[in-house]
Specification:
The protein is mainly β. The protein has a domain of 140 residues: Lipopolysaccharide (LPS) transport protein A like domain (lipopolysaccharide transport protein A fold, Sandwich). Helices cover 14% and strands 43% of the residues. It is built from one helix and twelve strands. The longest helix is centred in the first third of the chain and has 31 residues. The protein is rod-shaped.
Length: 228
């Protein structure tokens, strides 16, 4: 038995053989310069863009201004943030009762320490029992709530003792704790009361404990018939 295969007719494909102009070498056509430039740029363009991006990022980081520090991190200088002249400050308690009044020629507030420096200061403090304490000096340094006042230069504090008798303390420096009703100094001080005058090298007066401590050497002058 015989088998016959029938193949479809294949199209005719023309085949050409060409030789180059010299010695039969095939001709090689070189692309125009602008096409070669385009191909070169296409190949190196991604690398060039990455390099430009890196340079721009470095420039941006170097020239970006630093973020401002948070207020709590800012170092405060010892410079006054505000001043007042010919002023009067008053502090009141929770019931509205006047506790202390401070007057002066010039006030400077320092935010780094929250303290006031006052020139030609005058202080009037009123205790809960109504007793009045007066203080004055050429200059004073006070904390924020005026509970502690350092009196500097011709410092003077006057009040009354447990018997209601006047008592006056004078020195070049007196530290008055107006709420605790204490006066302290380590400089020479003079205390004048109804019983006489005492000069000492230092003083610690606590009105709440009815205690007056003087550091020696001391010199006392008592009037005739006064307490000794």
């Amino acid at each position: 038995m015989s088998v016959e295969l029938h193949l479809p007719d294949l199209p005719e494909v023309p085949i050409g053989i060409g030789l180059g102009p010299v010695g039969g070498t095939p001709a090689r056509h070189r692309a125009p310069w602008h096409l070669r430039l385009r191909d070169t740029l296409s190949a190196y363009l991604p690398l060039l863009l990455m390099a430009l991006l890196a340079v721009f990022t470095w420039w941006l980081v170097k020239n970006t201004p630093a973020l401002p520090q948070a207020p709590g991190e800012t170092a405060l200088r010892h410079d006054p943030d505000y001043t007042m002249s010919g002023f009067a400050l008053e502090r009141f308690d929770a019931t509205g009762r006047l506790k202390v009044r401070i007057e002066g020629a010039l006030l400077r507030h320092f935010p780094d320490t929250d303290r006031f420096e006052i020139d030609a200061v005058k202080v009037r403090a009123i205790a809960p029992d109504g007793r009045i304490t007066l203080a004055s000096a050429r200059r004073a340094i006070s904390n924020g709530d005026a509970s502690e006042v350092q009196l500097i230069g011709d410092a003077r504090v006057s009040s009354t003792d447990e018997n209601g008798q006047p008592i006056v303390m004078t020195s070049e420096f007196l530290q008055a704790y107006l709420v605790a009703e204490r006066v302290h100094t380590q400089l020479p001080v003079r205390v004048t009361s109804a019983g006489g005058t005492v000069s000492a090298a230092g003083l610690d007066y606590d009105h709440g404990q009815r205690k007056l401590e003087l550091q020696g050497p001391m010199h006392a002058v008592f009037p005739p018939g006064g307490a000794r």
